[in-house]
Every structure is written in C-alpha cells, then in structure tokens.
Design a protein that fits this description.
Distance between the termini of chain A: 39 Å
Number of strands of chain B: 9
Distance between the termini of chain B: 35 Å
Shape of chain A: globular
Structural class of chain B: mainly beta
Radius of gyration of chain B: 13 Å
Order of helices and strands of chain B: EEEEEEEEE
Number of helices of chain B: 0
Oligomer: heterodimer
Structural class of chain A: mainly beta
Number of helices of chain A: 0
Strand content of chain B: 35-45%
Chain lengths: 119, 110
C-alpha cells in the first residue's frame, strides 16, 4: 500500500521560506509516476502547487512559479517543497500526492500538514 | 488559469440522486478527457473518486459516476447515503503540464 507523509515546521515567519518533505513508503519513487504538492487554505478549496517526476523534471503552477522549488531524493524515497517569501496568504494545509503524469489524476494523498505563516 | 466553477452547495435526501457540475473552458475540461473528482470528508485528505471523466478506482462504489459534455463535467451520486456528506472537488488537465481544481461543492444529505 502506497503511503505518503508530510513533515515540516507548523509555523513560519512572514518573508521566510516554508520547507516541507514528503516521505513515501510502499512504492519506490524511482520506479516512476509524478509526485506533487497541493494546498488548501483554511475553509477554502484546493490549489495545485506543482509536481516533480522521478527524473527531476518539474512543473509549477504559474501563479506560484517564482516562489516554488520542488526537489526529489530517490535515495531517501522522498520529495520536498520550498516556498519562499511567504505571507499570511500562504497559510494552508499542504498535501503531497502521487500523480499519474499521463492522465493527470492524484491517486494517493498524504494526510496533510497545517502550516501557519505568522510572526 | 482560473479555477473550475462548481456550485458551492448541493443536497439530497437518502436514496435520492444528486449531480454536481464542474464548468471549465475549451482550454481545460473541453479539450481533455482528464477530469477527476475527489471526496473530502471533514478534517481528512481528499480521496480519488473518478478519473479520466468516468472511470472508478477499485473500491469506489458504483453509486458514484462521472460524465462530461462540452466544457462541463458532472459527478452523480446515486442512492445517497449519510456517509456521502462531504466536500467534492473536480480537477482537470489544462495543458502545459498544468492542472486546475474546482472551488468545491459541499454535499449535504438531508
């Protein structure tokens, strides 16, 4: 069974960089698929942030592209998100998920982690 | 890219059918058969219900079905059950390796 688990600080100061990691178990990232990040502000809908292929190819939401870096570490079977220059608007539950790149749906999701941006 | 348009709320009585719409444009829903639907129970992560417009993953009851016409995709929940009360989100491929979500629909079972 594929499982994903997000980890990282729950509180980040404005203008700093938000850093999250997604640990994957039950499936080797190097075998394929794409691995993505989605966020959900409190009480609001889902927003796609970006994704990475095991080869390292990345695809980002154009509205967030200047802030985002997604990387993969196949030796640790994990992938990571960095979101720079955060503001209160970046407060959200952040989910990692597995994405089938050819048909663009998310079949496995992490439980999500709340990140609050506040001084 | 703008979010796909979903009604904020929908409701139905147990045993009834409810359909939730998801309206996009000719650049996303209208151009690709890569529409997926997700169910989000309170405090939980989204769960895949439908992919490629109308396909169900293993384990999803056949009470859930999907369809598409033009720029609008739809999710139908037949034989409503109390456990179906949740938020539902659509998602579509929009080209250039970009996907977009709908704003979400809160389904209430009366």
């Amino acid at each position: 069974q594929v499982q994903l688990q997000e980890s990282g600080p729950g509180l980040v100061k404005p203008s700093e960089t938000l850093s999250l990691t997604c640990d994957v178990s039950g499936y080797s990232i190097s075998r394929g698929y794409h691995w993505g990040w989605i966020r959900q502000p409190p009480g609001k809908g889902l927003e796609w942030i970006g994704r990475i292929h095991h080869s390292g190819s990345t695809y980002y939401n154009p509205s967030l592209k200047s802030q985002i870096t997604i990387s993969v570490d196949t030796s640790q079977n994990q992938f990571s998100l960095k979101l720079s220059s955060v503001t209160a608007a970046d407060t959200a539950v952040y989910y990692c998920a597995r994405l089938l790149g050819s048909t663009h749906f998310f079949d496995y999701w992490g439980q999500g982690t709340l990140v609050t941006v506040s001084s | 890219q703008s979010a796909l348009t979903q009604p904020p709320s929908a409701s139905g009585s147990p045993g009834q059918s409810v359909t939730i719409s998801c309206t996009g444009t000719s650049s996303d829903v209208g151009s690709y058969n890569y529409v997926s639907w997700y169910q989000q129970l309170p405090g939980k992560a989204p769960k895949l219900l439908i992919f490629e417009v109308s396909k169900r993953p293993s384990g999803v009851p056949d009470r859930f079905s999907g369809s598409k016409s033009g720029n609008t995709a739809s999710l139908t929940v037949s034989g409503l059950q109390a456990e179906d009360e949740a938020d539902y989100y659509c998602n579509s491929y929009a080209g250039n390796n970009f996907v977009v979500f709908g704003g979400g629909t809160k389904l209430t079972v009366l």
